[in-house]
Amino acid sequence: MVGLALRGPRSIRWRLTLLYSALFAVAGAVLLSFTYVLVANSEPGVRAGSPEPRGTVPKGVPKGPDVPLVAQYVQQRLSVQRDEQLQQLLMESGIALAVMIVVSVALGWLMAGRVLDPLRTMTAAARRISADNLHERLAVPGPDDELKAMADTFDAVLARLEGAFEAQKQFVANASHELRTPLTLQQALVDVALADPDASAGTLRAACVRVRAAGREQERLIDALLTLARSQQGLERREFVDLAEVVRGRLPESGGGRPCVEAELGPAPLLGDPQLIERLVVNLADNAVRHNLPEGEGSWVRVWTGVDGGWPVLRIENSGVVIGADQVRGLFQPFRRLGGERVRVRGAGVTGLGLGLSIVAAVVAAHGGGVVAWAREGGGLGVEVRLPAAARLTGGS
Fold first, then answer.
1. Distance from C-alpha of 28 to C-alpha of 23, rounded to nearest angstrom
2. pLDDT category of residue 8 using cuts at 50, 70 and 90
3. Tens digits of per-residue pLDDT, 258-287?
4. Who has the most CB within 10 Å: 107, 290, 384, 396?
5. CA–CA gap between residue 271 and residue 241 (Å, rounded)
6. Do the Cβ atoms of 280 and 359 come closer than 8 Å?
7. What is the pLDDT at residue 341?
8. 229 phi, psi to nearest 5 deg
9. Are 279 and 334 in contact (CB under 8 A)?
């Protein structure tokens, strides 16, 4: 508070004080000038205690041949008296205005301090908040005025920052765990092979194959993390992309133990990053195939593309086990998998990384679209992606 007051005219309090005083001085000067002009241009009326009208002789003055001279003398005296009164009015009003300007500076200083008290409180509270105590809030009481609205907005920003920091910490912890797992497996395979003095060439070859597979899994994880980071940074370029053509080239194959694929692909033009759009389609298709019913139980995947309400839409549904609503809400979080956060889904030699839908959400956000998922009543999952149309992005109708 003292620091704010000692910074001189650069502080808001001083500027508000000077502004209040200047407005009061201008208003007072205008009022004084207006009053002076009205009094100076007014004619005295005939009333008790007021001078006689011009051209008349006051009572008590003898009437005779010298009446014109007497009347002229009286009018001159009245004019001089009027000028003196106007001058006295102007002087006294000026002194009163100067005194009130000084008073207005003091009152303006006090009122500016009262107005800025909540701002000083918010500033002190904001300085105490750091990355270690983002849970604290300003929580400014009072009426719903502009200052409280600013404080509430700052609290909302703090809430988002707290959520982002927590998500970042969780992401780093999960990524460290995921990256450590292949390394631990590789080290264990190598240690087991080196600890066996009678290991044959076939045993060593098998260990090398498993180490290589673990290295590929680690490479896939790093590529997925890079794709996620790239998606979250936004788009560097936009090109014309037909969502139907991308899906047609990336449809999962049917038969051979794979789910039956039904596709209804209508044109869905948009402007976006072709590589990220392709990654989005691949992740959704792989997710629909991976999290499906076992072979021979009537598994299926339905894919639909088209324009709905002016938005290019990709909709993918698949059969599968019954999914709870609480699980659906967390599917777009990194390293979140069906059946448990730390459970890997293995099948056909493919390991789920838990980044598929989080990458989808990041790609959709980078393009300015929206994505929603829902659990089907008979089991399985449905995902709908909406992206801005090409005409919408280029300013067309």
1. 8
2. low
3. 888 999 999 999 988 888 888 889 889 988
4. 290
5. 6
6. yes
7. 41
8. -65, -40
9. no
Contact 28, 105 (CB under 8 A): no
| Cα–Cα distance, 265 to 247 (Å, whole number) | 8
**Lookup result for tokens 């908040």:** 129
Spatial distance between the Cα atoms of 387 and 369, rounded to a whole number of angstroms: 4
Sheet holding 381-386, edge to edge: 260-265, 300-308, 311-318, 381-386, 370-375
Taking each helix axis as running N to C, give the angle between helix 67-128 and helix 12-40, from 0 to 180 degrees, rounded to the nearest 10. Answer: 170
pLDDT of residue 1: 41
Type of residue at 228: L
pLDDT value of residue 251: 86
Q: What is the DSSP letter of 254?
A: P
CA angle 180, 288, 338 (to 5 degrees): 50
Task: Write down the H helix ranges in the chain.
Answer: 2-5, 12-40, 67-128, 146-195, 201-232, 243-249, 274-290, 325-329, 356-366, 390-394
User: Which amino acid is present at 395?
Assistant: G
Residue 340 to residue 169: CA distance in whole angstroms: 19
Please say if the pLDDT value at position 372 is more than 80: yes
CA–CA gap between residue 355 and residue 221 (Å, rounded): 8
**Tokens, residue 100:** 């009130």
* pLDDT for 54: 47
**SS3 category, 348:** coil
- The rounded distance, in Å, linking the Cα atoms of 368 and 388 is 7
Report, in angstroms and rounded to the nearest whole number, the Rg of the chain calculated over CA atoms.
Answer: 42
Find the mean pLDDT for residues 333-350.
49
Is 389 within 8 Å of 308 (Cβ atoms)?
A: no
- Left if phi > 0, otherwise alpha if psi is -120 to 50, otherwise beta: which for 368? left
Q: 375, 324 in Cβ contact below 8 A?
A: yes
- Is residue 100 packed enough to be buried (19+ CB in 10 Å), middle (13-18) or exposed (0-12)? middle
DSSP letter assigned to residue 6 = T
Map residue 285 onto helix, strand or coil.
helix
Element (H, E) at 311: strand 311-318
